[in-house]
Design a protein that fits this description.
With 75 residues, the protein is mainly beta. It is built from no helices and 5 strands.
Length: 75
């Protein structure tokens, strides 16, 4: 399992803002968010959550993986 950078949307910022975070890939397109959330920030998905990621093109033309939806493991 490899660690990579994905982007998580910041909430309550008044405009679209994205935080680069470390995440460990578990399956193709599914990542577990690592690290800690800085004080004063509110993330759409928090460390420890597993999320499905999709590519997104940002305003500067770059393309990166963004956390899109929570993945809930079923027994």
């Amino acid at each position: 399992m490899s660690v990579t950078t994905i982007f998580v949307q910041l909430l309550n910022e008044g405009t679209d803002c994205w935080r680069p975070v470390n995440a460990q890939e578990h399956n193709e397109g599914i990542f577990e968010i690592l690290g800690i959330m800085p004080a004063g920030e509110e993330w759409e998905f928090v460390p420890g959550m597993r999320v499905r990621c999709w590519p997104k093109q940002f305003a500067d033309g770059s393309i990166a993986l963004v956390a899109h939806e929570l993945v809930v493991d079923h027994p």
